[in-house]
Specification:
Length: 212
């Protein structure tokens, strides 16, 4: 069930990356954020209710709320025209929690691939904190490209692998995943230095509230 939610998180991240790049207006992106945020709050609630007190199952479901709350926050803020600082500081909390969940994946769940994925999410939410919480607008394009490029390999791809029973996690696969994600972050640096894409609404984008 968690893989279903992860699949659509990939879509939300893709849309939010495009929003940061000025290709999608914040109000247009808000609707998908609300849908995915609601799904990512409903899914862990169902999983916890079905866990029958199993602490490992509850632990596995608990991290999903981080993203559910983020997307609901983004959707509501974009529709209401709220300032983004609250989302930014909440993103700092998410980044810290994602780092803890990465450690859990490595040493408790023995799932190094998802440990790498959690670390990549920690990076994304740290960027959201810097852009939205601290107002470091010079990082907006880099954040947009990084979100866009990491959205599918950290969400949709592992979701499809999990849904089809093809997901595998070992040290070698984790190293390959880390190398791919690092290359994508490097590509974001290169793309950021290129000429900006034309914005659908430059004034609105500068005050956008986006995530992952």
């Amino acid at each position: 069930m968690g893989d279903v939610g992860l699949l659509y998180v990939g879509a939300a991240l893709m849309v939010n990356g495009l929003m940061l790049l000025g290709r999608i207006p914040p109000r247009s992106a808000a609707v998908l954020n609300l849908f995915v945020g609601a799904l990512q709050c409903l899914t862990p609630t169902v999983l916890i209710l079905q866990a029958a007190g199993d602490p490992d199952a509850i632990l596995a479901a608990s991290g999903l709320y981080l993203f559910g709350f983020t997307y609901l926050y983004v959707g509501i803020a974009n529709l209401a025209g709220l300032s983004p600082e609250g989302i930014g500081w909440f993103s700092l909390f998410v980044a810290g929690a994602a780092t803890v969940y990465a450690g859990i994946a490595f040493w408790h769940d023995h799932d190094p691939v998802f440990g790498v994925i959690w670390l990549s999410w920690a990076l994304l939410w740290t960027l959201f904190f810097l852009v939205l919480g601290l107002g470091m607008e010079r990082l907006t394009r880099f954040t947009g490209w990084t979100v866009l490029l990491l959205s599918q390999p950290t969400c949709s791809v592992p979701a499809f692998l999990g849904l089809t029973g093809a997901y595998r996690s070992d040290g070698g696969t984790a190293l390959l995943a880390a190398a791919i994600l690092a290359a994508l972050v490097a590509a974001s640096v290169v793309l950021t230095s290129r000429r900006p894409l034309p914005s659908s609404n430059p004034t609105e984008i500068r005050s956008s509230h986006a995530t992952r």
